[in-house]
């Protein structure tokens, strides 16, 4: 085959062709299933498949991803592989990418019973990797100029040992960000950016801009999205440092000195980031995002002092005294209550919300991510609002975000 061909055909027939390709260990390089068909929810957010050579023979390695983590299983060739694959083909994924040693196949579900399949010659020249311990694909390599400029890697592009945790945090955040952007765009909730109307990202409490610059770099250089970023931080030193980094990288970015609650923007953002803003500063950021009607919001809360202080002063409702009797448990409860309340208030404000772990706790304890996609206007009354009212009344607390939203 010298050029790509596109064929529209019945979905079951197309999936059966992909099945035959995936079951051939001599041809398959990798297969990826992702997305969801309209009105459905697959058991997994994403699935990746490839063959690996183990001591016991060649197996099909299947890695499934839910909202927070990955699960890997190896299946022996034969009936075991066929059954595992058939179960995945029955899931309502929106697309399949199947790569062989000679061709790539892109299957896109266009209607409940119809698919469009594009087949093209495989252009990659690298040999097929069949080792079991394959390195995880990096969204941005360690020697990327952005990591050198930020001091995570040395001048030769080697990751500094002391910065490995930060690098891992950046990588996992980029996976969450791009997954959220893709999901919002598929659902028509986030517009496709153009050169004339780039994707506008604001990072509230950006600090030294590790995640700000990484997001801009990946979305523009790897994903090809026109992006403009604005960073806001109370420290003038941060703004000056970030502006110097932006100039050295040739990045189109603006860094503003000011508090999160007092920030004003010339244009409403498409994506609002609030990553490790301390205590109620996260609430200020979420209130701004809601007032801007931002299509996509990602917040990784830091400390949770406000609710923790209120719990120490308020009588504990029965029968939860044993939970708040010990300080460490009371602090953990405050963390959970705070983020549950934030998620509830975002839902009341018209957002679909997921609360996920975006990096393992051994890399950073600040690893909870609120991921919110705007789906409509505020909810008037109903069970979501009643649940919120009942919760804060039961515990005798006054959440900062609730005050900012007038709820």
Notable features of this structure?
407 residues, alpha+beta, Rossmann fold, 2 domains, eight-stranded antiparallel β-sheet, seven-stranded mixed β-sheet, 15 strands, globular
Structure, described:
The chain is α+β, with helices and mostly antiparallel strands and 407 residues long. The protein has two domains: 5-121, no CATH class; 145-404, Vaccinia Virus protein VP39 (Rossmann fold, 3-Layer(aba) Sandwich). Helix content is 35%, strand content 25%. The protein has helices spanning 11-22, 79-89, 145-150, 164-186, 210-222, 236-249, 281-291, 305-313, 321-324, 327-348, 382-395, 400-404, and strands at 5-10, 28-34, 46-54, 57-65, 70-76, 95-100, 103-111, 114-121, 199-204, 227-233, 253-257, 271-275, 296-300, 351-357, 368-374. The strands form two sheets. Strands 1-8-7-6-2-3-4-5 form an eight-stranded antiparallel β-sheet, with helices on one face. The protein has a seven-stranded mixed β-sheet with strand order 11-10-9-12-13-15-14, sandwiched between helices. Helix 8 (305-313) crosses helix 10 and helix 10 (327-348) runs antiparallel to helix 11 (382-395). The longest helix has 23 residues, at 164-186. It is globular, with a radius of gyration of 24 Å. It starts with a strand and ends with a helix.
């Amino acid at each position: 085959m010298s050029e790509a061909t596109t064929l529209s055909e019945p979905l079951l027939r197309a999936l059966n062709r992909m099945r035959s390709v995936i079951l051939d260990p001599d041809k398959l390089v990798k297969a990826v299933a992702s997305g969801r068909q309209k009105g459905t929810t697959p058991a997994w957010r994403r699935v990746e498949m490839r063959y690996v050579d183990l001591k016991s023979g060649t197996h099909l390695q299947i890695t499934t991803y839910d909202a927070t983590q990955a699960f890997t299983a190896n299946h022996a060739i034969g009936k075991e592989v066929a059954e595992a694959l058939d179960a995945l083909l029955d899931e309502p994924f929106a697309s399949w990418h199947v790569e062989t040693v000679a061709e790539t196949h892109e299957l896109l579900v266009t209607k409940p019973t119809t698919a469009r399949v594009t087949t093209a010659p495989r252009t990659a020249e690298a040999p097929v990797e069949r080792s079991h311990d394959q390195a995880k694909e990096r969204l941005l390599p360690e020697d990327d100029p952005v990591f050198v400029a930020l001091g995570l890697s040395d001048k030769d592009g080697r990751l500094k040992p002391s910065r490995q945790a930060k690098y891992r945090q950046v990588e996992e955040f980029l996976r969450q960000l791009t997954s959220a952007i893709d999901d919002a765009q598929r659902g028509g909730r986030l517009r496709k950016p153009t050169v004339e109307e780039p994707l506008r990202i604001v990072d509230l409490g950006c600090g030294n801009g590790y995640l700000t610059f990484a997001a801009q770099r990946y979305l523009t250089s790897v994903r090809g999205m026109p992006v403009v970023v604005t960073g806001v931080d109370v420290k003038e030193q941060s703004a000056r440092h970030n502006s110097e980094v932006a100039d050295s990288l040739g990045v189109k970015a603006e860094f503003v000195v000011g508090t999160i609650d007092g920030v004003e923007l010339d244009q409403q953002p498409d994506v609002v980031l609030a990553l490790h803003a301390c205590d109620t500063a996260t609430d200020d950021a979420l209130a701004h995002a809601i007032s801007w009607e931002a299509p996509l919001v990602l917040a990784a809360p830091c400390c949770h002092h406000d609710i923790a202080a209120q719990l120490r002063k308020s009588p504990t409702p029965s029968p939860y005294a044993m939970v708040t009797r010990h300080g460490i448990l009371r602090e953990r409860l405050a963390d959970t209550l705070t983020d549950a309340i934030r998620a509830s208030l975002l839902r009341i404000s018209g957002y679909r919300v997921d609360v996920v772990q975006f990096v393992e706790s051994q890399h950073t304890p600040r690893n909870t991510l609120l991921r919110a996609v705007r789906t409509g206007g505020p909810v008037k009354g109903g069970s979501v609002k009643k649940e919120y009212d009942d919760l804060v009344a039961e515990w005798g607390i006054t959440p900062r975000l609730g005050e900012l939203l007038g709820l």
